[in-house]
Amino acid sequence: MGSVVAIGCGATLEGFALAGVAVLRADSPAAAGDAWTDLADDVALVILSPDAADVLAERLAERPDVLTVVTP
User: Fold this and answer.
1) Which structural domain, as residue segments, surrounds residue 35?
2) Global pTM?
3) pLDDT digits (tens, 9 = 90+) for 2-44
4) CB under 8 Å to 7, separation ≥6 — which residues?
5) How many domains in the chain?
6) Which helix (H) or strand (E) holds 8?
7) Which CATH number is 64's domain given?
8) What torsion, rounded to 10 degrees, do the Cα atoms 50, 60, 29, 38 define?
9) The pLDDT of residue 1 is above 80
């Protein structure tokens, strides 16, 4: 079973922490890229804020083993 991570800016994703999701705060494009690069091997799902999804769109194929979803 893999872990779940959320990547995004500000308080957008902080509520996911209440459900046990590891929230990686990314308030800049560079921070979103760093969070993606540093994902652990056991991550199975990444929840992205719309801003993070835009930044990472071209990089998602680097981890075909990871399911991603974008919050509205």
Assistant:
1) 3-70
2) 0.92
3) 999 999 987 889 899 999 999 999 999 999 999 999 999 999 9
4) 13, 24, 26, 32, 35, 36, 46, 47, 48, 49, 52, 56
5) 1
6) strand 3-8
7) 3.40.50.10580
8) 120
9) no
According to the 3-state scheme, what is the secondary structure of 30-63? Answer: HHHHHHHHCCCCCEEEEEECHHHHHHHHHHHHHC
Give CA 18 to chain center in angstroms: 16
Q: How many Cα atoms occupy the beta-carbon half-sphere of 2 within 13 Å? A: 14
Strands ordered across the beta sheet of 22-25: 22-25, 3-8, 43-48, 67-70
Amino acid at 61: A
Q: Where do we find the tokens 């652990």? A: 40
Neighbour-count burial of 6, counting CB atoms closer than 10 A to its CB (0-12 exposed, 13-18 middle, 19+ buried): buried
Give the integer Cα–Cα distance in Å for 22 and 11.
Answer: 13
